[in-house]
Amino acid sequence: MDSLMFWGYSLSILYLIGMIIIGYVSSKKATEGLEAHYLGGRSMHPAIIAITFVTASTSAGVFMGEPGMAYEVGFPSLWAPLALITGLIITTLLYTSRLRKLTIEMDSLTIPDFLGKRYNSASVRVVLALMIVIFYSVAMIAQFKGAAILFNVVLGIPFNASLIIFGAIVAIYVSMGGFRAIAWTDTIQGLPMVFFSVVLIVTSLVLTGGLSGLSSRLSEIGPELSNMFEPSMYSPWGIVGLYVFWTLIFISNPYLSTKFMAMRSSGRSTMRTFLYVTLALGLILNLNYIIGLAARVLLPDISNVDYATITMAIEFLPPIIAAIMMVGILSAVMSTLDSFLLVIGTAVADDIYRKTFKPDASDKSVLRLTQISIFVVTIVVVILTMWKTPEFLAIVFYVGTSGVGIAIAPQLLLGLFWKKATKWGALMSMLIGVPFYSILVLYSNIGTFVQILLGTIVAFSSMIIASLLTTPPKKMMLKEEKSYEIG
Predict the structure, then answer these.
(1) Which residues contact 129 (CB under 8 A, 6 or more apart)?
(2) What's the predicted TM-score (pTM) here?
């Protein structure tokens, strides 16, 4: 066994055992009730929420898929970190505080439940919950592929066996510990993620002569690699779509926006802490695009671009640092997967089962169904990944999260700030916008972010037109005996 494999096995085994232990410890409080399991009792420190927010958004795409895209297209990929910063600032200032306040007043533990109460419509809640299950399952395929590649390349474990091992571990600690387990595991996972990113980004820049040297060497390979734009993913309209993705679509996703609901308060100092930590960590982790650019210069013959980051670490870092890289990427994958799985579990057990079919279901039975749903979805996604492994991690992740984001962004943002938003507007934004976007994904080649932009425009337009043509509810329903005035 070579030193890389030794350190890889040692650190990954310790890491995975640690995640299960945290899940077990967190399960003590997760069984106190649904609010404790789904939102950590709404008592989480803003710094912890910021870390879990960033690590959840930092998926296999940021460590593998997006550096792979940078390997393909060059400097235009650096638009993404700029869009990220804009999106985080606008989100924090625009609606984080208001979302937390209203979900508490409306006694909502999930985004589908909140929107169902906002529009006084069970249909809105159920349709949205179903879309979450479908599209997040698609996004999870990219995460499972990333983990399996990692186990296969670094540890030599067969691809399919890697999928099974990894899926079992994630499902166990998420089902046991709920949101609190996710928050604390994500916080711990953030350490190797940041360490690896900083080390390999600096190494990449040193080896290629800094940004100027990197640009000139990319130009020698192909002038288009150092351009500002690129004709497919990062065209001018694609850049607009990229900003829409980070500002509206991505942040509207429940696996991220639910975290705002778990903060212990929404005062100015709290939000300031959240924003500072989020921006610092988000910027560091999203500069991993530079690794992909450097790989194009230093390793021009990589056959599968999703392997660029791993290959760079193995080639240019000491074995123990490369092993930490493995844990860092594994952390990125798990921190996103656990949030997906919890949201899917709550959508099935709470938003669909209890709220629609069994309103008198006990908290214990709902928690049990949440756990069962997590395991069932994990098994299905593992099988789908084995059956048809996607080529580009980043694109699969964008499609999954954008499908949910396009379904939610219009009804969430307009519902928070526009009195005239109606349930028919919410339904039309989902039933027209999401199929339109899906058709673009399946049958057009106009570029991922242009597809997202057009899908968003159609969804918002459908929401506004249908709302103007129908009557808004006079009140948003809270509990059975209470209501909350709009406005």
Answers:
(1) 112, 347, 348, 351, 352
(2) 0.79
Q: Which residue has the tokens 């792979």?
A: 68
What is the rounded (10 degree) CA torsion for 185, 186, 191, 194?
Answer: 160
How many C-beta neighbours within 10 Å does residue 365 have? 14
Angstrom distances, CA of residue 22 to CA of 150, 330, 440, 476: 23, 16, 42, 38
47, HSE (Cβ side, Cα atoms, 13 Å): 1
Tokens 């899908």 sit at which residue?
Answer: 455
Helices then strands, counting H and E runs in the chain, come out as 22, 2
CA-CA distances (angstroms) from residue 289 to 56, 165, 242? Answer: 18, 29, 15
Compute the distance between CA of residue 31 and CA of residue 177 in angstroms, rounded to an integer: 8
pLDDT in tens, 143-183: 787 778 777 777 778 888 888 888 887 787 677 656 666 77
Distance separating alpha carbons of residues 325 and 315, to the nearest angstrom: 12
Give residue-wise pLDDT tens across range 182-231.
777 777 777 777 888 888 899 999 999 888 888 888 888 888 888 888 88
Instruction: Note whether 99 and 260 are within 8 A (CB).
Output: yes
Cα distance between residue 421 and residue 256, in whole Å: 23
- Residue among 210, 204, 197, 213 at smallest CA distance from 295: 204
How far, in Å, CA of 284 to CA of 84, rounded? 11
* Cα dihedral: 378, 29, 109, 59 (round 10): -40
> How far apart are alpha carbons 288 and 457 in whole angstroms?
30
Tokens representing 215? 């640009």
**C-alpha 151, offset from chain centre:** 22
